[in-house]
Amino acid sequence: MIDLSHTGPWDAKWVWCPGRQVAPFQRCFFRLDFTLEQAGYLKLHLSADSRYKLYINGQLLGVGPAAGDFFNYHYDSFGFEQKIKLNPRKYQLVVEVLSFGKNGPINEMHARGALMVHGAVLDDNENVLVPVSTKDGDQSQWRVLEDPTFGTQERGGVTADTDKPFRFYWALGYTEAIDLTKMAEDPLTLPMDDLRWQLTQYVCPVYRRSDPVNDYPAPWLLVPSVIPQPELGQQMFLQVVRHSDNATRSDWEGLIFEGKPVTVPANTSLRVIFDQGQLTTAYPQISFTDGKDASIRMVYAEAFSKDWQKTIRDQAEGQFVEGHSDVVIAGGKTAFYSPMRWQTFRYVELYIDTQDQPLTIKQFDSLFHAYPLVRQAQFASDNELSNQLWDLSWHTLRLCCQDHFTDCPYYEQLQYVGDSLIQALVAFNVGGDTLLWRRLLTDMDHSRQHFGLTMSRYPSHHPQMIPTFSLIWIRAVQLYDQHVGETQLVKELYNGMGQVIQWFMKRMNDDGLFASLEWWQFVDWVPFWKKGGGSHQVQREGDPTIYPSTIVNMQLLDALDAMVQMGAIAGVDEYVIQDYRQKADALKASIRKHTWSDDRSLFADSPNLDQFSEHANLLAVLTGIADESQQQLISENLFNQTDEQFAQCTMYFQFYFARAMSQLGLTDRVWERLDEWQGFIDVNLTTLPERPDHPDKQARSDCHAWSAWPAHWYVSSVLGVHPAERGYATIGIKPQLGRQNQAQGIVPTPHGPVTVQMVKKDGTFMFAADTPADVPCVITLPDGAITEHAGGLVKLQCQC
Q1: Which of 146, 254, 343, 605 is most enclosed, with most CB atoms within 10 A?
Q2: 594 — phi, psi (to 5°)?
Q3: Fold of the CATH domain 232-370
Q4: How large is the angle between the packed helices 550-570 and 467-484, nearest 10 degrees?
Q5: Fold (CATH) for 13-148+184-227
């Protein structure tokens, strides 16, 4: 028998190939051959430093592990929820592992190469037929082969038809350079008595976070993965877009559509551009034969561009595929190549340079990779642009959901809490998912530093602090609890959130306002704000005084209010809640006293009353700082400002703009702001970008998570479905159709879907909803009438 529980005794060991790891990047193939005389079931737990692909008899079973940190290093489990039945025959279990060492993408935290497998093939009575755990030296049946062909490219193998440098922030660390002339054979076809297969070398014991041990000589403390295996699916290119004169379009179309091989003659250089049809995240896959010393370079791009400047995204004429690349040198035999890390692309350009032998390409396609998120919500209206943005928002979200929420898949793949709150709401309201949201909250808790703040992004081996994002983390916990109702998580995180608050409280000035310039106080990418845009600092030239930011203080107030809201749920003493309440009341009074401008009838960005923004006034509405009369003045004055230095929200902060406008009943202002997004349709984007194109500032990411916020707004504000009580114990519906005449959709909740239909005709607003049975529902119509509903079908109407 073998104990495969998450807490029972494990006899597995961490292993690697013999010898000391010298190179920062090292790839190894681990292999276990066995024969079954009777049917059995494979069950195993698996982790590796840094990335693995698991195969059985050439079939890919899974990839991982999901990024974590050394105190929360993930392992994956196979064969438990879904059985892996093995019939009597010979088997080859293979784990391909790439070690980054201490290098690699910023969102990865690693130490050195290592593999851990704990498992067995079992019969129906859970008796062990074949042990598959990695063990010490001679005890292990595993063999390992160090891959001599693996190498990396500096700067990610940037390839472009321009002399202008690539100046964008890129956080992924490396791309691959494979030289198959160093070992032309497929290692998995080598017999086990080939001397290149060696006994695995013991690295250290396996420890889990739950193990009661005095000291941990291993760098990794294992925890079960908190998310499922990614969705993996075969996909083929849509078309061949362009090729060099010495290539024939029909030949390459035959390759991608019919699997017909294409032979590139000896001593030939050619280029072919393939179009996926939309942006994707996937493992490119290419198989080929012969062509010794031929170079195959795959260049990945989100869109066509020229000198890194993007215009019409699918316009090939006058533009090029500029981006990062993987490269393979053919070894002269049949080979299959797919990188260890998925790539992001709509376009892939093949650069093929043959030497003395012709090269035959037999396959070129890709394997889609993303978190297994399924769209459960539906939305449609008589606004065609909104219908298009609905789909673009969802596709943007899908590609930004991987091991965790990511800001953008091409450039960073980092989980910033400011971006991720928006993603979490879309994933929940549209996809019904809570796992990634919960992971976000616990990841940020794991990132907390001794002085109180969380990191701005996590996992990350490169520390970065954005104090405002620590505040957003607190609100993200409260919103999760409001939507899901998980008391235990609030209890676990409450004290840590309190430490964030204390960091801010220690930096209050004599006016009772937070005033500090520490770290990066990012708010929004307003071009003329300090630190290259984004950091809201309101200092004056030559004046050493540290002036408080109204916006940051409002975000602090929002976090204090969230602490009050969660206090009873966390089970803390009443005096603790009262203390947060008093801090919130005092801060609210100070903001009102020092930052309201009677001259402009708006909240200023600081007590200097000389800078103004949408941001401060939106947050004044959302936090309740603005009283009823001030809200009215904000509604009247916010949109008639002519000051060139009046800051407007960029795409990130438009999420808060939409929430505030909906709260003020100014839904049409959101529709008007979204009208500007027609430009994204006009340039044929298939996802939503980090920011609009601008002639003076090059566009970077074409797929940015924070820009998916319209999907959340459509279901939570237009359809109006929201949790009226924790965990949707009572469902709230407050539809706001605005200038549109009709909309309908389906919104998932923990109790089941809510269907909403509404039509505005001849001055009458007609509403119908179908809600989960026996779940209380409160419906607020546009005229303010409130109807309590017990569940099921309801039809209402009012004048509009």
Answers
A1: 605
A2: -100, -15
A3: Jelly Rolls (2.60.120)
A4: 40
A5: Jelly Rolls (2.60.120)
